[in-house]
């Protein structure tokens, strides 16, 4: 084969150039794998990279991720309607069973537990302030023909129920003794006539020598007591004169005199 002069060098240059190109092509993937393109940011990375909004000056009472708590229930207060008190009643006049204190119209008859206080052997005195006041009520009852005023002067029922040794002494006190006492007051008022409204107590005439201690059983009684009979009420009339009315029988309870028969034993 006939060679063309200069063809060999050209051929060699072409071959070398082709080899260089091939070598560069082989080296390109290596550079690509060594410098990979940056991957797209994930949503989580984006979220973390995003700056949180400022909360300065904002107050929240509920956490965003928690369910809101129910509002606190205020304490319940029962409204109580006051019960109206009883309507005040007019004070009643003292009765034969009433009494509180040594200077009251009727001294104490009952203990703090409600049981009757016992009888004593104390001798009663006409100088007792309580007795004097009860006598004044008796005279006022005669003057005004009003027996109820004089009930504190009469022997108390609670005492009579202890003293008298009979069946149902309370009924005897009500149906016989106090009934006679009321009747006698009416009779004395009528006896005084037109002078009755102006009478007052001048004195009680009582003979201390006639005072007796009555032992149990002497007058149908279970308990003893002092007794005095045939005393007299001395009254002062509006005309300036005086008049006496019989006070038939006084008996004692716990050292105090009480009327048990005003005019006669009937």
Low-confidence stretches: 29-103
* CATH domain class name of one domain: Alpha Beta
Distance between the termini: 194 Å
Largest sheet, strands/sense/barrel: 5 strands, antiparallel
Succession of helices and strands = HHHHHEEEEE
Anisotropy-based shape? globular
Overall pLDDT confidence: 76
The CATH topology of one domain corresponds to: Nuclear Transport Factor 2, Chain: A
User: How many DSSP H or I helices?
Assistant: 5
Corresponding CATH architecture of one domain: Roll
Percentage of helical residues? 25-40%
Rg estimate, integer Å? 62 Å
Quantity of strands, as a count: 5
**Helix-and-strand structural type:** alpha+beta
Fraction in beta strands:
5-15%
Molecular structure report:
This protein is α+β, with helices and mostly antiparallel strands and 266 residues long. It has a domain at 129-261: Nuclear Transport Factor 2, Chain: A. Helices cover 31% and strands 15% of the residues. The chain contains five helices and five strands. Strands 1, 2, 3, 4 and 5 form a five-stranded antiparallel β-sheet that branches. The longest helix has 28 residues, at 7-34. It is globular and about 45 Å long.
